[in-house]
Give the backbone structure.
Amino acid sequence: MGWALSLQATLPELVLSVGSLALMLVAAWGGQGATRAVGWTAIAVLIGAGISLAGPASSAGSVFGGLYRADAFAAFAKVLIYIAAAVSIVIAPRFFDRNDGDALHPEYPVLILLSSAGMGMMVSAGDMLTLYVGLELQSLAAYVLASFMRRDQRSAEAGLKYFVLGALASGILLYGISLVYGFSGTTLFPGIATAFAGAHSLGLTFGLVFVFAGLAFKMSAVPFHMWTPDVYEGAPTPVTTFFASAPKVAAVALGVRVAIEAMGPAVDQWRQIVIFASLASIIFGAVAAVGQRNIKRLLAYSSINNVGFLLVGLAAGTAEGVASVLLYLTIYVAMTLGGFLVVLQMRDGDGRPVESIESMAGLSQNSPGLAAAMAIFMFSLAGIPPLLGFFAKLAVFQAAVNAGLYPLAVVGFVGSVIGAFYYLRVIKVMYFDPAAPAYQRSNAVVEYAIIAVMAVFISPLGWFALRLIGLWTAAAAKALF
């Protein structure tokens, strides 16, 4: 395959890399005054990367000797990543402008672009080393973003915790990759699949376990979830919005590709790991969130809970299961972005961010539109019909049942019922508790517009798009088989 086609296949990453480097120079020369221009240009770069997916970047297949995969599966994941990244850039200026001593710097959108380039490499990886390089590029930018508010102790603590635990997870993953390479003789996914299809090897099994452990950290799946609540709470809210959406898509998509393409013949071995992580995440995420009083920590445990449901679809190990994971990711991104955008509007009379759930009391009276949107997101996360969150859970459960995993589907359903409690508690506080002091009114037209779009998409009106998304996810899933 020629170099020209190979470069066209990697065009989204080239656009993001060149754009981020150019904007870094603009940020260095323009200083603080270039922040807004750099932000909007970064969004244009993301749009350009998305447009470039229309060509060979979504259909070229394996390029660069199998190191990189340009297929429909990667293209689908990248669209979700770019949308989440663009929203995270749009909502940042107003948040940082209202925080004393921590203004938004032009490096913020540059870091988002670099992280997006790394995530693109992750979902298109066809080789263990490509996987690792993409994951580290995403992680290094994320560590800085978590501690972006240098004067805030919680943000600095979040960045340090994320860095230390992320380094540990990277070491575990790298050790697993070295074991897989040592016992298979290759780092390419097809070669690893051939090794797993051959004679049973205890070394390969150990390598599989370590690789999935490292990926579980990036997904924030139990028992490698420990960083999630503290980082989500301490990081600036726009950064938390980014962490809860784009990297989650990249990590889950990467896990799916590794499981199906590299370790497909060993499905009986990795399915046990995935089922354990799925059930542990569903149950722990549901139970641990019950006592939370901080809305960002609650959404962190909700994220852990939702990863469990995503892994139900992966455990099926079928094209239907992969399609259900992609459908769930699409709906999850919309629910998460909408929920965190509502959290961004929570400011007291002096304009300081408020994060306690109790402060949302009486929101239905003070801001009925905002309360209605939050109620839609909470009902959907709980899986209440006729909102799209119900259909997302139905899809992964149906895939598990069709694969013969009846106990997994039953326990997952019970865990969904338990988790509904803390989502409904937020709605109860907004609509039935005595009113707390009203939040400060804002004129954030763009943020309210995004909230409205996400709420409409999650509502029954989203049914009109459900059929089209279902066809797209099915086509993307087939690319792995």
